[in-house]
Specification:
Elements (H helix, E strand, L loop, with lengths): L5 H12 L5 H7 L5 H14 L15 H14 L3 H8 L4 H14 L21 H32 L6 H17 L2
Helix pairs in contact: 1-3, 2-3, 4-6, 5-6, 7-8
Keywords: Coiled coil
Protein name: Transposase
Organism: Isobaculum melis
Length: 184
């Protein structure tokens, strides 16, 4: 996808606002590959103003709870990715799409943040025994938290009368047996 600078985006949106044509006409006129790009720019400006067309230099980090809320709203409302992104103040609809795909593939666990970078190469010896006990306890607490969130999500889907994905139906009975196997 081509990157467009702020001045170009502003010119296209102003042309739309001045009645120079619809989305497809302006896309052809300004040599933009897809009219949906023009649509996104116009909707973004209508919601947040022209400053929202500027590229962000720093990356925003979103909590897993926020991502769950966005995905829950998307699933229950039936709105488009763009509409959901604008409602939650996200820079583009691709974020909602990516979060939704991660959720469908890996469940709620896919929405939690992953550690960045390479592991430390320090030569310091760490106490192994205390580390394993702490790590195992933390893993179990984390697993419990994820299972609670997933169960709450399934309950919400049931309450709304929506279909529960097969992946979630199959994982529910196995999750408790996996814990028992790992605790030996």
């Amino acid at each position: 996808m081509a990157k467009y600078d702020y001045a170009f985006k502003k010119k296209v949106v102003e042309a739309y606002q001045n009645g120079a044509g619809g989305y497809p006409t302006l896309a052809k006129q300004f040599n933009i590959s897809s009219f949906s790009t023009v649509h996104k720019w116009v909707k973004t400006v209508e919601k947040f103003g022209f400053k929202a067309l500027r590229r962000r230099r720093n990356y925003q980090h979103y909590s897993s709870k926020f991502k769950q809320d966005v995905i829950h709203y998307y699933l229950t409302s039936g709105d488009s990715y763009l509409t959901v992104a604008l409602k939650y103040g996200l820079p583009n609809d691709a974020l909602v799409l990516a979060w939704h795909q991660k959720f469908l593939q890996t469940g709620i666990q896919g929405l939690s943040p992953k550690p960045k970078g390479r592991p430390s190469m320090s030569k310091k010896k760490k106490p192994i025994q205390a580390k394993k006990i702490q790590t195992r306890e933390q893993e179990l607490e984390h697993e419990n938290e994820l299972l609670r969130a997933e169960l709450a999500f399934i309950k919400k889907l049931r309450a709304l009368g929506m279909n529960i994905p097969e992946r979630l139906k199959n994982e529910m009975p196995e999750s408790s047996t996996n814990s028992e196997k790992n605790s030996d």
